[in-house]
Amino acid sequence: MIHVPTATWAHTLFDLAGWGSGLALSFGLYRWRLRGLTEQVAGKVGGGYFAALAAGAIPGAWLAGSLNTLRDAHPALSHSVVGALVGAIVAVEIYKAIRGIEGSTGGVFVGPFALGVVVGRWGCLFAGLPDGTYGNPTSLPWAVNLGDGVGRHPVEIYESLAMALFLALYLEGLARRRAWALRRGFYALCIWYGATRFGWEFLKPYPPLIGPFNVFHILCGGLVAYGWVYYRRDLRRADAQGGALPVPRPDHEPV
Predict the structure, then answer these.
(1) Burial call 146-157: b when 16+ CB within 10 Å, e when fewer
(2) CA distance 255 to 247
(3) Which residues in the chain show pLDDT less than 50?
(4) pTM
(5) Is residue 255 part of a domain?
(6) N or C: fewer beta carbons within 10 Å in the chain?
(7) Residue 46's Cα: distance from chain center in Å?
(8) What's the confidence (pLDDT) of residue 250?
(9) DSSP SS3 for 137
(10) Distances 106 to 89, 200, 214 between C-alpha atoms, Å
């Protein structure tokens, strides 16, 4: 069992580090591979896009987190990154439907979100038991002791490493100008994050909502379904366009 020193302020510290590194990565990816696609998206979404995104992400984060923790033995309000993601997707897709906008508009958020999870989950770990994101007890040799002498699954590390793997694959896809990364990266993110976190949720002591599934199981299942349906839809759209992805910059090639 591995003893982990904890402090409640660690969550804020790693959140700030996650936001900062995510913004830096966003700028770097824009300069490196995503400038043309980002300008295409910006030209068609309009100013209401980010208002819709915020209007979905903020209540989505608090509703999902609180729906989970208010049903616990010690009810409290809380927020959730998966709730923010789902809320943002719902609001943005409604906005896009009203405006008649087709195709993925979330490519610029893929790298920052993945890196934010990679960094931020360590803050959840070091924040300890008060953070409420710890895993179930286990006797595995890498179990972590968060101060109460109980060995637990380091679910925060599991999630961080899973997203680090996705980020590495995504960056490799961008480097090779793969269509799945350039054009459908956001849908791939939803599938990966939804599927992996669905698995990690079985290792957490959250109250079930439907059968053995908690709130986040249901949200993650929705993410996987959304990503898969829209990924396949965009594949069909690309086939109808001849398979090439036009990018209006001289330093990019059709993919």
Answers:
(1) beeeebbbbbbb
(2) 9
(3) 246-255
(4) 0.92
(5) no
(6) N
(7) 24
(8) 42
(9) strand
(10) 9, 25, 27
